[in-house]
């Protein structure tokens, strides 16, 4: 169960379902390539923290607000809306037990964030928007104590980091429930300099936003930084979203079109203005954005005009540590405009979506054969139509899209309650090999949209309130080449998960995942690469057991094998609550194949949505303290060290550290009033 009282202070150690979904959504491609997923978008965590302080009223919330919790699937939202329509507002939160599909486990998970007040939307004035909310100021500091290669290269500025190893973040945010939000974010990454001389308080990245809702017929007004989510992500989705996980009924994307952006990530957001105007069952959203993106420009000869022109490739990492990275900063200007016209029915909606981007320099797609259909040129267009309708125990959703070159993409899903104890999900997707969208992020084998066809089926079975079995099977095909797959290919992905909840606070989960994914291989003495399906088995077990009222033990085991490579990871954690103190300590042993990696969630700052990758052979330990000085002030400290026995160094490139140890210190101060 999630405890709202601690959420704003410590948070991530209570979000076990979120952690499991993050770890289960790790793709085979991430395991092979060594990608460490750092979303730097903690909007979902901030949303739950806000609802923990000012609860969501289930009698007035619409479908998008309910989905925004991240804890309800489409069938459950339909069931609650249908119950409310038939029997009127909930008299008490305990009445949720009478809603079809709402069992005790689900009710406990949402209880810290929801309430059942009156069925009338409260009336607030503009003065209320500015006076009745909560302020929060957050200061973060982190540093790797050992110096990496990038800081040790003396006076050769061309190949070293120009800033200090300190990573810092300052974030101020004011929130008044679902009605108002504004704030400021400043961040400096490790290795970066301050933005300007004489302004030591200004980080390398500065963001701001003003977001208001329910101003008469103006449903939403967004100024500054914001994100846009459309349909099922075929043409646009910048919010946090999971891939294939054991939560087989949560395969549908659902969100408000406009969302405030108050995270430190520097790429997946817009900067400008947006507004949603609503009258009756119809709403229209429009937004514009103008911002500078990092990119690499190349100057080429134009044989037709005998002049020079520049092409560019975008860079999304957001790092400005070396002269070469600084040269990428704000090199390409992006102008964006889009609109959503939505018609709401009794239990669903139909929407038309359009988005267009224009760039100051033509985008270059690269010369590799797999990039043949990549985005190129100065203009990118996409349009789509999406729908979502519920009927009895069935929920249908989907989106059909076309890009500016006429290439189609289709996604159609179905959720069905076969019985009170059995649920089914189906999802079909067809994405033309040449279909492309700039910020698409739909459900599938790859989050990038295009060059994928597939069929997914999931089933969920319940026994009483303690046992849950979930399974899915996904068969997909790649019509064209992709990175490290040099021919069209097919693949399979399947998962089986068993969960036991012996009491309110204990969780036992065992998951088996099988993947058969295409990848390039090269076998001596042959010099030519060929594509084969790599078979991989991954078994994980997870347990959360309370020792008593103050102490909780958390353990995770992961074993992966296949293609002659074996990897394993064992994680142990103990948490303790002692009055105003909350302490935890953990230890991880790992031994992975040379080209493999295993992942754990929630080993960074609270709610940062990051995954930590463990590769090689070694162990990792951490100790964490949280002290609730007062309702206004919270202090948070974490020490962490990884050890690779016998290693002469760890890390690569400018991040290489001499010796077998890597030690990190993370500090956070949070003021709330």
Automatic annotation (TrEMBL):
InterPro entries: RuvA_2-like
Comp. bias regions, Basic and acidic residues: 13-35
Region (Disordered): 1-44
UniProt-recorded name of the protein: Helix-hairpin-helix domain-containing protein
């Amino acid at each position: 169960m999630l405890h709202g009282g601690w959420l704003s202070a410590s948070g991530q150690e209570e979000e076990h379902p979120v952690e499991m979904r993050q770890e289960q959504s790790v793709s085979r491609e991430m395991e092979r390539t060594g990608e460490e997923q750092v979303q730097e978008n903690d909007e979902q965590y901030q949303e739950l923290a806000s609802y923990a302080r000012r609860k969501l009223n289930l009698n007035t919330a619409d479908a998008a607000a309910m989905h925004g919790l991240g804890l309800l699937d489409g069938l459950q939202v339909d069931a609650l809306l249908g119950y409310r329509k038939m029997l009127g507002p909930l008299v008490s939160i305990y009445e949720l037990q009478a809603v079809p599909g709402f069992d005790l486990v689900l009710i406990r998970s949402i209880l810290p964030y929801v309430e059942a007040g009156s069925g009338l939307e409260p009336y607030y004035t503009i003065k209320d928007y500015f006076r009745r909310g909560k302020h929060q100021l957050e200061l973060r500091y982190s540093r790797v104590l050992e110096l990496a290669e990038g800081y040790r290269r003396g006076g050769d500025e061309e190949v070293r980091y120009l800033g200090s190893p300190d990573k810092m973040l300052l974030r101020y945010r004011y929130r008044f429930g679902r009605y108002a939000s504004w704030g400021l974010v400043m961040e400096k990454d490790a290795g970066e300099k301050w933005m300007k001389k004489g302004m030591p308080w200004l980080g390398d990245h500065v963001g701001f936003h003003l977001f208001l809702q329910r101003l008469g017929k103006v449903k939403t007004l967004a100024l500054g930084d914001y994100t846009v989510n459309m349909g099922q992500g075929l043409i646009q989705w910048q919010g946090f979203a999971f891939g294939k996980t054991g939560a087989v009924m949560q395969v549908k994307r659902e969100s408000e079109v406009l969302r405030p952006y108050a995270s430190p990530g520097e790429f997946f957001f817009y900067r400008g203005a947006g507004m949603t105007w609503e009258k009756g069952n119809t709403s229209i959203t429009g937004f514009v954005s103008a911002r500078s993106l990092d990119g690499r420009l190349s100057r080429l000869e134009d044989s037709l005009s005998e002049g020079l022109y520049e092409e560019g490739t975008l860079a999304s990492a957001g790092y400005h540590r070396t002269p070469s990275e600084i040269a990428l900063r704000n090199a390409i200007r992006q102008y964006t405009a889009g609109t959503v016209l939505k018609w709401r029915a009794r239990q669903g909606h139909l929407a038309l979506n359009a988005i267009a981007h224009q760039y100051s320099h033509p985008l270059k797609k690269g010369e590799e054969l797999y990039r043949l259909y990549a985005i190129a040129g100065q203009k990118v267009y996409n349009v789509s139509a999406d729908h979502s309708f519920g009927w009895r125990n069935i929920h249908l959703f989907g989106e059909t899209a076309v890009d500016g070159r006429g290439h189609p993409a289709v996604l159609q899903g179905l959720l069905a309650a076969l019985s009170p104890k059995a649920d089914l999900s189906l999802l079909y997707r067809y994405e033309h090999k040449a279909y492309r969208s700039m910020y698409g992020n739909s459900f599938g084998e790859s989050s990038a949209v295009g060059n994928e066809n597939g069929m997914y089926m999931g089933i969920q079975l319940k026994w009483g309130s303690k046992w849950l079995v979930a399974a899915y099977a996904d068969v997909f095909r790649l019509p064209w080449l992709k990175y490290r797959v040099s021919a069209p290919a097919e693949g399979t992905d399947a998962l089986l998960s068993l969960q036991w909840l012996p009491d309110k606070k204990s969780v036992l989960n065992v998951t088996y995942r099988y993947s058969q994914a295409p990848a390039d291989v090269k076998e001596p003495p042959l010099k030519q690469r060929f594509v084969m399906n790599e078979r991989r088995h991954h078994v994980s077990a997870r347990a959360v057991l309370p020792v008593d009222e103050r102490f909780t033990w958390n353990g995770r085991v992961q074993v992966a094998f296949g293609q002659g490579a074996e990897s394993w990871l064992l994680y142990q954690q103990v948490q303790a609550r002692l009055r105003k103190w909350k302490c935890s300590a953990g230890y991880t042993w790992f031994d992975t194949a040379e080209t493999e990696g295993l992942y754990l969630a929630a080993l960074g700052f609270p709610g940062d949505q990051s995954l930590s990758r463990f590769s090689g052979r070694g162990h990792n330990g951490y100790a964490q303290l949280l002290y609730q000085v007062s309702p206004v002030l919270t202090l948070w400290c974490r020490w962490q060290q990884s050890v690779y026995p016998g290693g002469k160094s760890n890390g690569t490139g400018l991040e290489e550290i001499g010796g077998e140890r890597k030690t990190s210190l993370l500090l956070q101060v949070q003021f709330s009033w």
